Amino acid sequence: MNEQQNTQTVQEGYALFGKGDIPNLLNLYTDDVEFIIPGSAETVPFAGVYRGKEQVATFFAKLHDAIDYERFEPQNYIAQGDRLVVLGFSKGKVRATGRTDEEEWAHSFIMQDGKVARFQAYLDTEASMKAFRSNRDMAEF
């Protein structure tokens, strides 16, 4: 697949995510896809490493349960060969704390035969942890 096709696949993935269409989103991934989300799962419930479509589906369920996104905007796509980086912005309310998690991010994709084989998120983990901490935890922070 060429860079333009890879970019279109990732754009389609973001559109499906925006609609909440996770079953069709998973069809854009290889069977052994790997997702890497930074942070501590003790604070940010969806942080961790997920392997395979079933685990990635679990990631999306945890993400949905954790954050109500007001904005989720992929803004710039940079493709070279089988690699793609997307720069974007998101703003959402953490369901457990009511705090806003607002940040710029980068998503790195490795494509294989037109599908996503690896995804890694680069986030402001300190901002995320603050948004997810309870009031009691914030007093200790």
Automatic annotation (TrEMBL):
Pfam families: SnoaL_2. Residues 10-118 form the SnoaL-like domain. It comes from the Bacteria. This is Nuclear transport factor 2 family protein. It comes from Hymenobacter jejuensis. The lineage of its organism: Bacteria, Pseudomonadati, Bacteroidota, Cytophagia, Cytophagales.
